Structures are given as C-alpha cells and as structure tokens.
UniProtKB/TrEMBL annotation:
It holds the Pfam family HisKA. It is a multi-pass membrane protein. Residues 221-256 form the PAS domain. SUPFAM superfamilies: ATPase domain of HSP90 chaperone/DNA topoisomerase II/histidine kinase, CheY-like, Histidine-containing phosphotransfer domain, HPT domain, Homodimeric domain of signal transducing histidine kinase, PYP-like sensor domain (PAS domain). NCBIfam families: sensory_box. Residues 367-586 form the Histidine kinase domain. Coiled coil: none annotated. Keywords: ATP-binding, Cell membrane, Membrane, Nucleotide-binding, Phosphoprotein, Transmembrane, Transmembrane helix, Two-component regulatory system. GO terms for cellular component: plasma membrane. InterPro entries: CheY-like_superfamily, HATPase_C_sf, HATPase_dom, His_kinase_dom, HisK_dim/P_dom, HisK_dim/P_sf, HPT_dom_sf, PAS. It catalyses: ATP + protein L-histidine = ADP + protein N-phospho-L-histidine. The keyword ATP-binding applies. This is histidine kinase.
C-alpha cells in the first residue's frame, strides 16, 4: 500500500513543544491581565477625583453661607438689588442639583440618606424657587421667613459636609486595603503559576516520551499492515483523484499484471481492471467514476473484471477515500467472487429442487387423498344404507366388517390429509372454553370398544386439584388425545390404559395430560423416532399392529402449534407414558349451562321434512347423499352439474342446498356465488359445501361465496343430519319457548365473510316477509295459499336465525294442513312477533356485517 503513515509519527515529537508554548502563552496572558488590573487601581489612586468631591462638599456649606449673608444684607438695608440674592440662590440650587445627579448615577462618595438629607436639601431649594423667581416686593416681605428657613438648611448642609468628608476618608482606606489584598493575591497566583508550569513541564516531558513510544508502535503497525495488505486475498489499489494507480498489493499484481507484465503504477484503473469493449464497462473518465462510486455506493459494487490473461470474472468493488499530504486518494478493494457465485447458484438450484419436491409431494398427497376419499364416500355410504335394510346375522357381521375396514381406511387417508395441511401451512386454531371432564368422557366413550377388543381397561382421573375448564382448541385437543390413546390401545393387550390430568406449577401455568399404558413399551434409542412422519418401531412384515406412522407426529405438531409439546417419559421401565403439556388458561367467566336448552346436535331424525337440492356430478355420491336424505323423510332434487343446480335454485325455493365443489364446467363455488346474487327462489337458502378436500383456506373461500358450512366426504350420516337440523328448527322449539334469535344460526351467518352479500340477503328477506305477513293478515286467504306462504317464510326465517318466528309459521302451516278452515289458524299475534323479530334481525345483521375495528 502507498498510504503514507509516516506523517503522524513525525509530528508526534513536536506535540509536547506545542502544548508547552500554549501553556506559557496562557501564563503570560494571565500575568498581563493582573498587571493591567493593578495599573488601573494605581491610576485610580492618582486621580484628583476625591479632591474635587471634597471641594464640592465644602462649597455646599460655603454657598449656603453666602446665600444667608445676602439675605442678612438685604434685611439690614446694606444691599438694595435683589439680583445678587437671586444669583446666590442659583449657585446654591446648582450645587444641590449636582449632588442629586451624582446620587442618581450611583456615586457613593458620600453617605447621604436619599429620604432625609439629600431629599431635605432638594425639597427646600425647590420650595424657594417660586419665591426667588417671584415679584421683588413679595421676596422682600419674605426675607425674615427666608432667613429662618436657611438656618435650618445650613444645619443640614453642614451635616452633609461632615459626613461627606468622613465617607471620602473611608473610601480611600478601602481602596488602599483592596490594592494591598490584590497585590498579595497576585503574588500567590504567580507562585501557583510557577508551580503549575513546573508540573506542566514534567507532564509534557512524559507525554513526549509516550509519543515517541507510540510513534514506534505506529511504525510497527504500519509494517504489519503492509504485510496484511500484501498477503490479502483481495486485490487492493490506491488511486489518485484522476483514477491513476499509485500503489497496489501482491494480489492485484497476480490478477492484473501477470508474471512478466509491466507494472501497474501509473496505469488508469478502469483500463486495467475492465475490458474496454464490454458493454457494462464505465464509459466516463476514471476520476469521475471513482468519485461517484465513493459517494453513492452503500455496499460492494458488482462488476465484471478482466484479469491479465483476458478472463472475465464476477467481482465486487469496495471503494473509500483517504486524505494525505499528496491529496485525496481512493482505496479500492476488488474481490474475485467466482467461487461464491457458483456456490450460490448450486444452493439455489438445490433449494429449488427441494421445494419442487415438497410441492410435488404435497400435491401428490392432496390429490391422492381426494381421489381416495371420493370412492370411500360411495363405499361407506353404501354400507350405511345397507345397515338400514333387513339383514340376517351373517350379513350384518359382513357389513360391520366392511364398515370397520372402511373407517380404518378413512382414518389413514385423514392422517395423510392432515400432513398435507401441515405442509401447506393451512392449520388454523380456534380458542374457546373447553370442558375437560366432558372432553375426556367423550374420548373414553369413543375408544372403549377398541380397548375392550384388546381386553384393556380404560379410564381417566385428575391428579391433584381438578381443572374442569380451560381455554383451548377443543377439536385439536381431542385429536391429539385420540391419537395418544389410540396408539396406547394398539400396543397394549390384556393391560390397562390410564389418562391422568394434572396442573403443573411454574412461572407459566401448564396442564399436563398423561396417557399411561402397560403395553410393550419402547426401547430408549427409539423414543424420538416414534414422532417422525411414517415412523414405525417394527417395520417388518410380521409386525403386530398397522398404521401409517403419522399419528404421533401429527399430535406433536398440533401440540407445538398450540404452544405446548408432546413427549415420552424416559423413566418408565414397563409400558409407555406419553404426555401432552399445554399452556393453562382458565376462562374468566364460565358459561352457565342449561339442561333444558334444546340440543341441535346430530338428531336421530329431523322433525320437519324439508325440500332439499343436491348438486353433485358423481352419480354414486349423488345417489348416496340423496338416499340418506330421503330415508330421513326429506324431498330431494338432484342436479348433475353446477349450471343445472343454478337453474333449479333460481326457479324453486328450497329449504337447503348441498353443493359439490369439484364439478366440470361450473364449479360449486361459482354456482353458490351466482345463486346468492340471482335474486331467485333460493337466493337466501342455506348452502352446504360437500367436498373431499377442505383445507382452512378453501373453507374461507367457500364462506366468501355464500356457503355457511362444509361437509367432508365420505359423508357421515350423523354429521349430515346435524347440517340438515341447522336448516330448519325442530318442533320442540315451537311457540314461546323458542329464542327470538338462534345464536347457532347467527354464528353460521357470521362465517359468510361477505358483509355486502349478507346485507343484500337480509334486505330481500325483509321485503319478502313484510309482504307475506301482510298477506297472511287477510282472513279470506285460502288454506293452500296459507300453507305455501308459511312454509316458504318459515324456511327463510330459520335460515336467517329467527327461531321463534319460524316456529310460529311452522305451527300455522301445521294447523292449516290439519284444519279445514283458514280462520282457525293462530295468525292474530303474527304481526307483533314479526315486528319484534324484524328489529332484532336488523340489529344483529348490522353487528355481524360491521367491519372489525
């Protein structure tokens, strides 16, 4: 490097001399200042100021006496002219005014009390001004009084003269004492400065020694830096302001000079480093280029350089400037990044291949799970329909075996679909109040048959104080526990499985749920492998249990997604203990549960037959779904395409629509969106999405299209009945016992995720119901029209969550069907109930559709 680092060491020995000169100059200035102050004090003593003041004080008494003598001369008749008297008074008046002005200017040469002595003199002379300047007769007449007043004035003047002399004497003494103290202080200060100069000289000598040592260290550092620069892997150039190379290191010589090439010193940097014919080479002069790059670059500049052999290679430039005696110099670091670029390209290619593989795997799993669920829908649906037919014992046993095998296959497909959701990041959690006792009772009840088949006992209990409620995701919590309990049952025969629930103390409250079994156990070196995807402890053909090996891996992923974890107790010698730990959040207020509140959950059969539309292009799926519904007493219309379903929904008022998603031509999402915006007979009818692939993001798209629920294939009959039950209120909700607004239905409306669509449906329903209630008020309305109107509005009211109104209309429809006289139907209170329901619905829709703050 050509950076001149010798300038700093050369100037180092001169630094103590500079500091010493500055210190001596400061001392000289200080001494000069003190001498100036002393001279001014001496000059003050030589002034005749105090003599003039003393003369003025004495003259006050003299002028007073002269004025008194003039008065006496006039009284004795020795002087006739009043002008002399007035002249004497003017002199006296001027003298008093002079003292007043000095006192006002702050001169303290005389100790006058401004409220007594000086004020008395001034007031006295001012009081005599009118008399003196007045007529001569009046002045002559007042001479006796004037003589008397001047006697008192003379006494005050003598007092002023006496105190003035005393004051002047005191001031002189004070000034002499101040001068003496100043001279003494100056002597002390001079001695202190001499001592300070001595100390300063010692310090400067020490600093000089240190600077010499530092100069030697800098020289050694310079040599080390030169060694570092010469051995650096980067090519380093030093250029002047014109972009001409002045120095460079060995790496730069190897790159751009070659073995036998001429030296680079004096060569333009741009011509040396860049290929003149390349398109991206700088076309401006070297100095301008380097200055611009120095000012604007926030990091290394990516360039293409040319070495001594003509090879082009990617490089990075780092540019900075230094200042030396020779002027501004530019330091350039150039690094060959060919190997790094190649490594980055290799990593990018490997990453892209890995991502492509993951996408292919996720797509394969999603497609395969969908393709497997579609035939499973036909298989399991047919088996459920067979169970409703008369069967002998052998046939029922075969159907039961088919049902169990189908359910097992469905659980395997569900595991694969769950893994696909994790890979796609589609898992979403909900947070709500969980009744732990009810949840665990349900898990034990649902797995008891499997445990009994293995001759295992199964139960649960609290360890320590019971924790009855917590805030969590009940569906995911149940899924984790079912995986853990199911795994324990598979590997335990003729034993026991205990579920223990315990609250753990600590900084963060945790809930631990342990699944303890007395099964075969797990060897220590396999304890972590059990949580890997598709992992099985025994992968041989002779293994005793089957499965995909996904259950425990999914359980751990779900637990960590919920802020907890799943693990295996390593201290267990026999059997296994799997634990689930989750953050324990106790609900602020526990809901009050009413045993009399009617259940809307999976009724065995609906109480009111409904008119339903099934839109399904697959013949087997359409047959099974429609047969399920018909056997429950519903009227079913089947549409084999999205376009046909749209046309039927526009033309007819249905109580509910089951819409397949994947259909050729018009898919289910498009059909549902068009039905909602059509204004046809089923524009506000509940629509349920039926699909074999329902990831959370897709379900959000379903809700945005106007579908309130999602039914997964294979269609479970009880789940289907629960969906149908949500489309119309059961009979037990009729009358005044039904709530004005059904909260479950309002929650379904809230999931539509389309406020504009929700408001539009509400407006159409309000207009339709206003007209219907007005028509039902006609006592001459025929029974057929009564039944048709009440059936239509009852379904619409149920869809909008007006449970009490829907129940009342259903009751009117039932009585109209049973009675031969329309006047017997209970319609009198309907307008009042509609008005109350209308206001409540408008408020509820506004709250649902209002955007979140």
């Amino acid at each position: 490097m050509a950076l001149n680092t010798q300038s700093a060491p050369a100037s180092a020995p001169r630094m103590p001399l500079v500091l010493l000169s500055v210190g001596l100059l400061a001392v000289i200035l200080l001494v000069g200042g003190l001498a100036s102050i002393a001279l001014r004090q001496v000059d003050g003593l030589t002034l005749a100021y105090s003599d003039n003041t003393q003369y003025s004080i004495a003259q006050l008494d003299v002028d007073t006496m002269r004025f008194q003598l003039a008065i006496e001369a006039l009284e004795a008749g020795e002087m006739e002219d009043l002008e002399d008297l007035r002249l004497r008074f003017d002199i006296l008046y001027s003298r008093v005014e002079m003292f007043r002005r000095r006192h006002m200017n702050g001169e303290d040469f005389i100790a006058l009390d401004p409220m007594t002595d000086l004020a008395t003199l001034e007031a006295e002379v001012r009081a005599l001004v009118p008399l003196i300047d007045g007529p001569g007769d009046a002045l002559r007449a007042a001479l006796p009084m004037l003589s008397e007043r001047m006697e008192r004035f003379a006494e005050t003047a003598r007092a002023v003269s006496t105190r003035g002399a005393q004051r002047l004497s005191a001031i002189a003494d004070t000034r002499r004492e101040a001068l003496r103290e100043m001279l003494l202080n100056m002597a002390v200060l001079v001695l202190a400065m001499l001592l300070g100069i001595s100390v300063l000289a010692f310090i400067l000598m020490r600093l000089w020694q240190l600077s010499r040592a530092r100069a030697d260290a800098v020289s050694r550092a310079e040599q080390q830096m030169r060694t570092v620069v010469d051995t650096a892997f980067d090519a380093i150039f030093v250029c002047d302001s014109d972009g001409v190379i002045r120095d460079y290191n060995n790496t730069a010589a190897r790159m751009f000079q070659g073995d036998d090439g001429p030296g680079l010193t004096g060569q333009p940097f741009i011509d040396t480093v860049f290929d003149p014919v390349q398109t991206d080479a700088p076309s401006i002069d070297p100095g301008t280029f380097l200055a611009a790059a120095t000012d604007e670059s926030g990091g290394p500049l990516a360039v293409s350089a040319r070495d001594a052999e003509g090879r082009m290679f990617p490089a990075e430039l780092s540019i900075d400037q230094v200042h030396s005696k020779a002027g501004r110099m530019t330091v350039i670091f150039l690094r060959d990044v060919s190997e790094r670029r190649q490594a980055e390209a290799d990593l990018t290619q490997a990453r892209d291949q890995a991502l492509a593989g993951e996408r292919t795997k996720a797509q394969f799993l999603a497609v395969m799970s969908h393709e497997m669920r579609t035939p499973l829908n036909g298989l399991l649906g047919t088996v459920q329909l067979l169970e409703d037919t008369p069967l002998d014992t052998g046939q029922r046993s075969l159907v039961k075996t088919m049902r169990g095998s189908g359910d097992h296959l469905l659980s395997l497909v569900n595991d694969i679909l769950e893994l696909t959701e994790f890979e796609a990041g589609e898992i979403r959690l909900e947070s709500t109040e969980v009744d732990l006792a009810q949840l665990l009772n349900g898990i034990v009840a649902s797995t008891r048959a499997l445990a009994e088949a293995q001759h295992d006992s199964l139960g649960w209990r609290f360890i320590g104080p019971p924790v009855m409620h917590m805030v969590s995701d009940p569906r995911r919590l149940r899924q984790i526990l079912l995986n853990l309990v199911g795994n324990a049952i598979k590997f335990t025969r003729d034993g026991s499985i205990d579920i223990e629930v315990e609250r753990l103390s600590g900084v963060t409250p945790m809930l631990e749920i342990r699944v303890c079994d007395t099964g075969v156990g797990i060897v220590p070196d396999q304890r972590e492998n059990v949580f890997m995807d598709f992992a099985r402890i025994d992968s041989s053909y002779a293994r005793q249990v089957g499965g995909t090996g996904l259950g425990l891996g999914i359980a751990r992923r779900l637990a960590r997604l919920m802020g907890g974890d799943v693990g295996l107790d390593p201290a267990r010698e026999t059997g296994s203990v799997f634990w689930l730990r989750l953050p324990l959040e106790i609900p602020a207020t526990l809901p009050v549960r009413s045993d009399t509140r009617p259940s809307r959950k999976a009724p065995s059969a609906p109480t009111v037959p409904l008119d339903l539309l099934v839109v399904e292009d697959n013949q087997v799926n359409a047959m099974i779904l429609s047969e399920f519904l018909r056997r429950d007493g519903h009227t079913v219309t089947v549409a084999r395409s999205g376009q046909e379903g749209l046309e039927r929904a526009r033309a007819t008022r249905f109580d509910g629509i089951f819409m397949d998603i994947s259909m050729p031509g018009m898919d289910g999402i498009t059909a549902a969106r068009l039905i909602r915006g059509s204004g046809g007979g089923s524009a506000d009818t509940p629509i349920v999405a039926v699909t074999a692939h329902a990831l959370p993001s897709e379900q959000a798209e379903f809700r945005a299209a106007g579908m309130s629920e999602t039914l997964s294939k294979p269609v479970d009959r009880e789940r289907l009945r629960a969906c149908v039950a949500g489309m119309a209120p059961p009979v037990e909700l009729a009358g005044q016992d039904a709530p004005l607004l059904d909260p479950d239905r309002l929650n379904q409306l809230r999931r539509l995720s389309n406020p504009a669509l929700l408001r539009d449906l509400c407006q159409k329903f309000l207009a339709e119901t206003d007209a219907a209630v007005a028509t039902l008020g006609d006592p001459e309305l025929p029974l057929d029209a009564t039944r048709e109107i009440t059936h239509k509005i009852a379904s619409s009211a149920a869809a909008m969550g007006l449970a009490r109104l829907s129940a009342r209309l259903s009751e009117i429809e039932r009585q109209a069907k049973q009675s031969g006289d329309a006047a017997q139907t209970p319609r009198e209170s309907l307008p009042e109930l509609w008005a109350e329901s209308r206001a409540a619905l408008v408020d509820a829709i506004e709250q649902i559709a209002r955007p979140a703050a």
